[in-house]
Amino acid sequence: MAEVNLPGPGLWTTSVGSFPKPDYLIAARGRFARKEIDREELTELEKQATREWIEFQDSIGTDLVVDGEMYRGDMVAYFAEELPGLEIGGLVRSYGNRYYRKPIATGPIGREQPITVDWWRYAQSLTDAPVKGMLTGPYTICDWSFNEHYASRRDFVLDLAKVIRDEALDLERAGARYIQIDEPAASTRMDELDLVSEAMAIVTEPLTAHTITHICYGDFHNAYPKMLEIPVDQIDLEFANSEYSLLDEFSDDPFTKHIGLGISDVHTHELEPVEDMVEGVRRALKHIPPERIFVDPDCGLKTRTVDEAKEKLSNIKKAVDVVRAEL
After folding, report:
1. Which of 2, 135, 175, 303 is most buried as measured by Cβ atoms within 10 A of its Cβ?
2. Number of Cβ within a 10 Å radius of residue 61
3. pLDDT per residue over 21-58, tens digit each?
4. Chain mean pLDDT for the chain
5. CA 66/CA 3 separation, integer angstroms
6. How would residue 175 be classed by pLDDT, with cut points 50, 70 and 90?
7. How many domains does the chain have?
8. Residues 6+ away with beta carbon under 8 Å from 285
9. DSSP 3-state assignment of 278?
10. Residue whose C-alpha is closest to residue 168's, from 128, 138, 127
11. Angstrom distances, CA of residue 137 to CA of 73, 108, 179, 203, 215
């Protein structure tokens, strides 16, 4: 298990990854799609929004910072657009009224250059706090794509794993000490956790950074404790949305990794009271020591408004400060 170099006794605050884009950036992305502005102008606005989110996290004392993914649309299409062997198909519905362009594997997957390293370097230049490297996992890229090339899902996933491994290694060489490999699709096919683990092993085996995976809302009771076989240092899980019910499983089968403890439900406009969040952290401490707990929202905050996201993150920090004082 990689060493955590953050200061203090644990209960470190962070975020899962994505933040809502400010109105000016949403408008600019629309203008860029209509060819009314060029890539350089859009990039400057993406940098502005990134800087604003970094400054906000610093202002509330976030321990492990994220860049907010202001330069990304969909988490899979963003990588697919840069990977030879994947083409971008038509729009499909992901959930609600949200759509994404589903990639299509038309040949062997490759990688010509780093995809996220320059953005990570930019974000890290803005803060003294460590910034997470953020990658979409190979299983999720496969699961959210059409396959017109590979003989099996496993072949597709494992080729993707080699590409994501190379990206992770470049992030580590650039200085990233925390690297997150998101696998939200794993929660929809718990019967394929062995494939998730096999692919993750390819990604994480050569890394010395603290590795994290985030798995979104799912039937975790049926996947626990098998999920502990995923070869990462930390698993980030939702708890607020499920009323912390998974903690009951930890009594019989202790949680042996670092945990990302989601204490704010990102799928509701409601702002949870600090007192409720405090109680959630206290409940987790009955099962996991503070030096193995990172505290964050249940999932990415991109579906909330900017103000809602800031309020949720601020309350998370206030709740952690209360419990830290108790410790």
Report:
1. 135
2. 11
3. 999 999 999 999 999 999 999 999 999 999 999 999 99
4. 93
5. 19
6. very high
7. 1
8. 293, 323
9. helix
10. 138
11. 16, 17, 11, 9, 10
Mean pLDDT of 234-247: 90
Rounded to whole angstroms, what are the CA distances from 314 to 49, 62, 309? 18, 9, 9
Question: Tokens at residue 317, please?
Answer: 């920090």
Q: Which residues touch 35 (CB under 8 Å, ≥6 apart)?
A: none
Strands of the 293-296 sheet, one edge to the other = 12-13, 293-296, 258-262, 234-238, 210-214, 178-182, 133-136
**What is the mean pLDDT of the segment spanning 231-242?**
92
Instruction: Tell me the C-alpha distance between 299 and 177, whole Å.
Output: 21
Tokens of 45: 């606005």
> Which residue type occupies 52?
E
Reading the block at residue 14, the tokens are: 């962070």
The backbone torsions φ and ψ at residue 236, rounded to the nearest 5 degrees and listed phi first, read -100, 125
Considering the domain boundaries, does residue 76 fall inside one?
yes
pTM over 0.90: yes
Residue 122 covered by a domain: yes
Cβ(171)–Cβ(211) below 8 Å: no
Within a domain: residue 167?
yes
- Residues 6 or more apart in contact with residue 222 via CB below 8 angstroms: 190
CATH classification at residue 265: 3.20.20.210
Taking phi over 0 as left and psi of -120 to 50 as alpha, with beta for the rest, 244 belongs to left
pLDDT digits (tens, 9 = 90+) for 36-45: 999 999 999 9
Q: For residue 5, is it within any domain?
A: no
List of residues 6+ apart from 4 with CB closer than 8 A: 12, 210, 258, 291
